[in-house]
Design a protein that fits this description.
Blueprint (H helix, E strand, L loop, with lengths): L1 H19 L9 E9 L8 E9 L4 E7 L5 E10 L2 E6 L3 E3 L4 E4 L5 E5 L9 E8 L3 E10 L4
Parallel strand pairs: 1-10
Antiparallel strand pairs: 1-2, 2-7, 2-8, 3-6, 3-9, 4-5, 4-8, 9-10
Bound molecules: copper (II) ion.
């Protein structure tokens, strides 16, 4: 009888531990939405890219971005230095667990150099490389301004 009680107690204790522990995301889950690229003025080949990056999982790090329509893509940030707004390259961008990072005019943005053969309304591929999530590809629309 005592043995039975102990067994029952252990079983329910174990059940409590299992049911009380909250689910913990063990991997990042990243999506990129509202992605668009501002078409450069005629005769120029530098474009800026904007989007919203969401992570519903654990933390990750954005290492680089590339695109078939650009020679080079850099991650940039606007900073105030000596009373002037300046741009700075961000070599790695930490994405917190459950975090959202908005790439927008005056904040984080993509700087795309050597952009060729893009047209308004076209969808171009942006290829993101993350430390944990690996390579993920998303589409961005070529526009003149934010919606
Ligand atoms: Cu820039």
């Amino acid at each position: 009888m005592i043995k039975f009680i102990i067994k029952t107690f252990l079983a329910s204790a174990l059940l409590m531990i299992v049911s009380c522990s909250e689910p913990v995301a063990t991997s990042p889950d990243i999506t990129v939405s509202e992605a668009w690229v501002r078409i450069p003025p005629k005769g120029r080949d530098i474009a800026a890219g904007y989007f919203v990056l969401n992570n519903s999982g654990s933390k990750d790090v954005l290492l680089s971005v590339s695109s078939p329509v650009a020679h080079t893509v850099e991650i940039h940030q606007h900073i105030m230095a000596d009373g002037m707004m300046q741009m700075q390259e961000v070599p790695k961008l930490a994405i917190p667990a459950g975090g959202e990072i908005v790439f927008t005019s005056g904040g984080y943005h993509l700087m795309m150099f050597g952009v060729t053969d893009i047209q308004l309304g076209q969808e171009v591929e942006l290829i993101f490389v993350f430390e944990k999530s690996g390579t993920k590809s998303f589409l961005a629309t070529i526009r003149t301004q934010a919606k």
